[in-house]
Design goal:
260 residues, proline biosynthesis, 11 helices, cytoplasm, Rossmann fold
Length: 260
């Protein structure tokens, strides 16, 4: 019997799977996995995962089941597994399938929890939101918190905030990558080599984020500390304000939250 069984090994589930082994939280041989697209499993074969022949084998051979399939197929995937999941624990990262939704889909004996992670989990720098309402045992809930803590930071979030908060942390990396690319493009325009520009932009964002987290200072205060009177930084800030960067980023979150 394996400790954890993965159904679905897409980008997000794959990042988590690789992260928990990289962190040492679990060994590869503690995990069994299946994906309908066999090539998706290539990313974990070298980690020692057992590759299952189908979803039913994953459920039967694991203590806890982790489901990371696309939202449009989750009910089709779960339907033939309902009986097998009785008296088991299910961890889900499927967007839109929270505690209330699983209460309707699963047998009452199936314990379940909804988590919204993000892809930096692959490099042990993820941000995972754990839905406050769940039906796991205390021991299982502790396991989930420790597992996601091994690949980054966690936050236990009330159900009504999972959508907005999850959009910020889940969609946010894509927005940040666009900012990295744009900052690097600006440097390249001024003659900086491309690889150097990406490194400078990425590390600047990593360092800025860490500084805010460790100091707890308001981002505006930290921004002011970089802006000398009449200097180059405040002129760059002016250009960003003219481009409505704040409103644009706020709109990005709102658009993602209300996508149907």
């Amino acid at each position: 019997m394996k400790k954890l069984g993965f159904i679905g090994m897409g980008n997000m589930a794959g990042a988590i799977a690789q992260g928990i082994v990289k962190s040492g939280f679990l060994k590869g041989e503690d995990i069994i996995a299946y994906d309908i697209v066999s090539s998706q499993l290539d990313k974990v074969k070298d980690l020692g995962f057992v590759i299952a022949k189908d979803e039913k084998e994953v459920v039967c051979e694991s203590e806890m089941v982790f489901i990371g399939v696309k939202p449009q197929v989750v009910e089709k995937v779960l339907e033939p597994l309902i009986d097998l999941l009785k008296n088991k624990a299910l961890i889900s990262i499927v967007l839109g399938y929270d505690y209330a939704r699983y209460q309707e889909l699963l047998d009452s004996s199936t314990r379940h929890i909804f988590v919204m992670p993000n892809t930096p989990a692959r490099v042990l720098a993820g941000m995972s939101l754990i839905e406050e309402t769940h039906s796991l045992t205390l021991e299982e809930f502790d396991f989930v918190k420790k597992m996601f803590s091994s690949i980054g930071e966690i936050e236990v979030v009330p159900s009504h905030l999972m959508g907005a908060a999850g959009t910020l942390s889940g969609c946010g990396p894509a927005f940040v990558y666009m900012i990295i690319e744009a900052l690097a493009d600006g440097a390249v325009k001024e003659g900086v080599p491309r690889d150097m520009a990406y490194k400078l932009a990425s590390q600047t964002i990593v360092g800025s984020g860490l500084m805010q987290l460790e100091t707890s200072l308001h981002p505006g205060v930290l921004k002011d500390q970089v802006c000398s009177p009449g200097g180059s930084t405040i002129r760059g800030v002016e250009a960003l304000e003219k481009g409505n960067i704040r409103a644009t980023l706020m709109d990005a979150i709102t658009s993602a939250v209300h996508y149907k």
